């Protein structure tokens, strides 16, 4: 990671099998696999619901997040540390590949 760059997610897209594609402001795209976090329970247990996983996925706090309240409140979301998201598996753009 560049020393002067702090990862900023600009788009999050649900992928297959509880994965998320994170698009960063520097052009990097990563794929996060959320299965292990979901299996661990706690706050991530809510992501086991397929509808919630896909429909509540958004960007809050400049990172991948799930909008718990439905009001895009950055204080009531499930979010992923942007450094963790940035260091996840780097991938090509799945939206571009689908076109």
General description of the model:
With 99 residues, this protein is α+β, with helices and mostly antiparallel strands. Helices cover 21% and strands 31% of the residues. It has four helices and seven strands; from the N terminus they run βββααβββαβα. The protein has helices spanning 35-39, 50-55, 82-86, 94-98; strands spanning 9-14, 19-24, 29-33, 57-60, 63-67, 77-79, 89-90. The strands form two sheets. Strands 1-2-3-7 form a four-stranded antiparallel β-sheet. A three-stranded antiparallel β-sheet has the order 4-5-6. Strand 4 and strand 5 form a beta hairpin. The longest helix has 6 residues, at 50-55. It is globular.
Give structural attributes.
99 residues, 3-stranded antiparallel beta sheet, 21% helix, 4-stranded antiparallel beta sheet, single chain, 4 helices, 7 strands, alpha+beta
What secondary-structure arrangement, pairings included, does this model have?
Elements: E1 9-14, E2 19-24, E3 29-33, H1 35-39, H2 50-55, E4 57-60, E5 63-67, E6 77-79, H3 82-86, E7 89-90, H4 94-98
Antiparallel strand pairs: 1-2, 2-3, 3-7, 4-5, 5-6
Helix/strand/pairing class, anyone?
A: alpha+beta
Order of helices and strands: EEEHHEEEHEH
Number of strands: 7
Q: Tell me, what's the shape? A: globular
Count of runs of 4 or more consecutive helical residues = 4
Mean pLDDT: 94
* Terminal CA distance: 29 Å
Helix content: 10-25%
Unreliable parts: none
Q: Give a short account of the largest sheet.
A: 4 strands, antiparallel
* β-strand amount: 25-35%
Task: From the alpha carbons, calculate the radius of gyration and give it in angstroms.
Answer: 13 Å
Side-by-side strand order of the widest sheet: 1-2-3-7
